[in-house]
Amino acid sequence: MDASDGNLKRWANLADTKLMSGLSSHLVAWVVLLGCVGTGCTDPRDAWPSPPRDQEERNLIEAAKEAVRQHDGWEQVLWVVERFDGAWRVQAWKIVHPQAKGRNRCSPAWVRGIHFDPRGTLVDYRNHL
């Protein structure tokens, strides 16, 4: 074995190393890309409505649940809490298509607006928003 054989083996090892590192970096890039695409394909509207932000909103939803049970007898409902003019409105959206996602689970014909004063006392129950 002469010096050129040793150089040839070093170059072959270097080429194999570069090829493998190139393949592994491409593999990592594909995994990251597919992960981003897989998670990025979800529609933010599918997560509607957003969860209550604090205990006050959870308390308002509990009070609204009782009102909806008494007036309409609905069991499957999505809740949206809004604050406006210093008061609160809780929207109760009846679920009419449980297999759908987001707002598509509900129908605008089956929505109630439950209004509370700033202290959380029920003031109004409407058949629409």
Describe, in plain words, how this protein is organized in 3D.
The chain has 2 helices and 4 strands. It has 129 residues and is of the alpha+beta class. It folds into 2 domains: 3-41; 48-126, Roll (Nuclear Transport Factor 2, Chain: A). It has a 4-stranded antiparallel sheet with strand order 1-2-3-4, with helices on one face. The termini are far apart. The model is unreliable at 36-40 (pLDDT under 50).
Secondary structure: elements and pairs:
Elements: H1 3-40, H2 55-71, E1 77-84, E2 87-95, E3 106-116, E4 122-126
Antiparallel strand pairs: 1-2, 2-3, 3-4
* Secondary-structure element order, N to C: HHEEEE
Mean pLDDT: 80
Overall geometric form: elongated
CATH architecture name of the largest domain: Roll
CATH class of the largest domain: Alpha Beta
Counting helices, strands and paired strands, the structural category is alpha+beta
Strand content: 25-35%
Q: What is the count of β-strands?
A: 4
| Tally of individual helices | 2
As an assembly, this protein is single chain
Gyration radius (Cα, Å) is 29 Å
Quick structural summary:
The chain is an alpha+beta fold. It folds into 2 domains: 3-41; 48-126, Nuclear Transport Factor 2, Chain: A, CATH 3.10.450.
